Amino acid sequence: MLDDHDAMTAKLSQENRELYAAHLAGSRKLLRRMQKIAAPPKRVTKAVHHALTSLRPKRRYILDTASRVQKLAVAVTPTPVTDKLLAAVTT
Predict the structure, then answer these.
(1) How distant is the alpha carbon of residue 57 from its chain centre?
(2) For the whole model, what pTM was predicted?
(3) Residues 6 or more apart from 91 whose CB is under 8 A from it?
(4) Cα(76)–Cα(64) distance, rounded to whole angstroms?
(5) Cβ-Cβ contacts under 8 Å for 22 (sequence gap 6 or more)
(6) 53 to each of 41, 43, 58, 61, 91, how far by Cα in Å?
(7) Residue 52 neighbours by CB distance under 10 Å
(8) CA 10 to chain centroid
(9) Looking at residue 67, what is its pLDDT?
(10) Which residues does 61 contact at the CB level (< 8 Å), separation at least 6?
(11) Whether the predicted pLDDT of 30 surpasses 90
């Protein structure tokens, strides 16, 4: 995933890399964190299989503790606060 991010960044013009440098660095940092806490591939595969084959697939598949905590935090946090937190994490 980080390789894809780096390849995409390399395709940008020098001007755009400079203009978006803080956001690109923040998104790369966030991707690194996400890779560390991501659900195991087998669990993801099982959820995708269920979503594709079930007569009644779930609307959401929460596969790890971090996602459960995030879902709860977003549910009880006002949208402007959530937006500021996400902006802070990606810059």
Answers:
(1) 22
(2) 0.54
(3) 22, 23, 26
(4) 19
(5) 91
(6) 18, 15, 11, 14, 39
(7) 8
(8) 21
(9) 83
(10) 47, 50, 51
(11) no
Q: Which residue has the tokens 């697939």?
A: 57
Q: What is the token pair recorded at 21?
A: 């440098």
Mean pLDDT computed over 24-29 = 91
Distance in angstroms (rounded) separating the CA atoms of residues 75 and 48? 24
CB 31 within 8 A of CB 90: no
* SS (HEC) of the chain: CHHHHHHHHHHCCHHHHHHCHHHHHHHHHHHHHHHHHCCCHHHHHHHHHHHHHCCCCCCCCCCCHHHHHHHHHHHHCCHHHHHHHHHHHCC
Q: How does pLDDT run across 34-68, given as a tens digit for each residue?
A: 888 888 889 999 999 999 999 999 998 998 888 88
- Would you say 12 and 80 are in contact if contact means Cβ atoms under 8 Å apart? no
Please report, rounded to a whole number, the percentage of residues in the chain having pLDDT higher than 90: 54
